[in-house]
């Protein structure tokens, strides 16, 4: 049993390799301390009427996030259509 344990430990030890850069990064992440102040404003404290968003701003945002945003339209047949192609069904 002891020989199997030694072989197993050798395999595990050989598989766990870190570079000096990784070690330095971990050391700095654990030992470098930072002090900072921050302010939190809850969304609920801002009235919807205080924020004005135009259609142009929404379109501009959607254009910048085009790959992340998928516009889905459901047809009466229950198929989900995106850019004229059927991509899913309800």
Could you walk me through the main structural features you see in this protein, from its secondary elements to its overall organization?
By secondary structure, this protein is of the alpha+beta class. It has one domain. It is built from 3 helices and 3 strands. It has a 3-stranded antiparallel β-sheet, with no helix packed on it. The radius of gyration is 28 Å and the shape is elongated. The chain starts with a helix and ends with a strand.
What layout of secondary structure does this protein have?
Layout: H1 2-15, H2 20-31, H3 55-64, E1 73-74, E2 79-82, E3 85-89
| Helix run count | 3
Unreliable spans: none
Compute the number of strand runs.
3
Strand order of the largest sheet: 1-2-3
- Helix-residue proportion: 40-55%
Strand content: 5-15%
Order of helices and strands: HHHEEE
- In round numbers, the mean pLDDT is 80
The dominant shape is elongated
C-alpha end-to-end distance:
58 Å
Main beta-sheet annotation: 3 strands, antiparallel
Rg over CA atoms: 28 Å
As for the number of domains, it is 1
Structural class: alpha+beta
